[in-house]
Amino acid sequence: MDTHQVKVARRMQETPDICVLELVACDGAPLPSFSAGSHVDVFLAGDMTRQYSLCNDPSDRHRYMLGVLREQAGRGGSAAMHALQVGDTLKISTPKNHFALAGTENRSLLIAGGIGVTPILCMAERLSVLGADFEMHYCTRSEERTAFRRRIGESAFADRVRFHFDDGAPSQWFDLARVLSDQPAGTQLYVCGPKGLMDAVLEAARKSGWPEDRLHYEFFAGAAPVAIDGDSPFDVKIASTGQVIRVDAGKTVVECLAAAGIHVDTSCEQGVCGTCLTRVLEGEPDHRDIYLMPEERARNDAFLPCCSRSKSPVLVLDL
Fold it and tell me: Of the spans 10-24, 63-77, 222-236, 254-268, which averages the highest pLDDT?
């Protein structure tokens, strides 16, 4: 994995619990290019790796901007990010994009919840530059906790954005059913935010007949389950060598493979980012990720060993 040393050039408190960090290369060189919807892995002390969407204009090769929510019940990553000050250095990955714009020839419907606005805002700005047809809905708890409100208000597409505050008047609450029904045929839907909002949007869209190839979404780390009471042990077989490795209850496939000397690249370790995606040649995975789409899960030819398990006694992996 290519990595880059960056330093914090600016730190801005966007809302009481969201800060924006502006990162520049330590050597002053241009940073790798990226597209709307991209994120970077940030490598923190204690072997923590976290993913954060880039929320600046992709033409800004001199900087990356990250919006970071301070999660009180988090695993330490957001606290470490919020503790960063101007001049502090970090190691990050080259940008990756699992949430790219699928096309601009048709209308785009952008739905953001809370900190999920970071990739959605970047998409809105890109669509605006291209002169594409889109509308954006941004749901937050309150106006005070709405990141980038001024930036959006001063943008060329401000009239295409609708804000929805939980503590606001009922007349401005998000009417999901109406918004979905108002879209012309061929509209592409993009949604990012808390799992509850995303589940509601995707479920409503599917029930309304939206085809899966027009639904685009990105979950944030922390939303995926890792363990379930009553897990049973199973075996994984390495196709290239025939080696069989036991995966006990309470252990992940990645952990057991590592103990046997078999390395699988990981990042979020929660079934969110897709870094550890592994082909399955035989057996039936017990999918517990939030990365694969329903039709990809149904094929049972790949799974995420950082969190998923097996419904069959043996999984044969293409390793």
Answer: 10-24
- Rounded Cα gap, residues 249 and 226, in angstroms: 11
Is residue 224 over pLDDT 70? no
- Average pLDDT over the chain reads 90
Helix (H) or strand (E) holding 151: helix 149-153
Q: From edge to edge, which strands make up the β-sheet containing 278-282?
A: 244-247, 234-238, 314-317, 278-282, 302-303
SS3 278: strand
Helical (H) or strand (E) element with 314: strand 314-317
d(CA 90, CA 286): 36
Q: Where do runs of H (alpha helix) occur along 166-261? A: 176-181, 195-207, 253-259
Strands 302-303 vs 278-282: parallel, antiparallel or unpaired: antiparallel
**Whether pLDDT at 59 is above 80:** yes
In sequence order, what DSSP letters do the residues of 63-127 get, joined into one string? -EEEEEE--TTS-SHHHHHHT--TT-EEEEEPPB-SS----SSS-EEEEEEGGGHHHHHHHHHHH
CA distance 143 to 130: 29
Give the position of tokens 């594409």: 132
| Cβ atoms of residues 198 and 218 within 8 Å | no
Q: Order across the sheet with 39-44: list the strands.
A: 48-53, 39-44, 89-93, 3-15, 18-25, 64-69
What is the pLDDT averaged over residues 286-309? 89
- What counts of helices (H) and strands (E) characterise the chain? 7, 18
pLDDT value of position 74:
59
What pairs with residue 6 in β-bridges?
Answer: 25, 90
Residue 73: pLDDT over 60: no
Model confidence at 203, in pLDDT bands (50, 70, 90)?
A: very high
Burial (CB count <10 Å: 0-12, 13-18, 19+), residue 169: exposed
Please state the φ and ψ torsions of residue 85, each to the nearest 5 degrees.
-125, 165
Q: In the predicted model, is pLDDT for residue 269 greater than 60?
A: yes
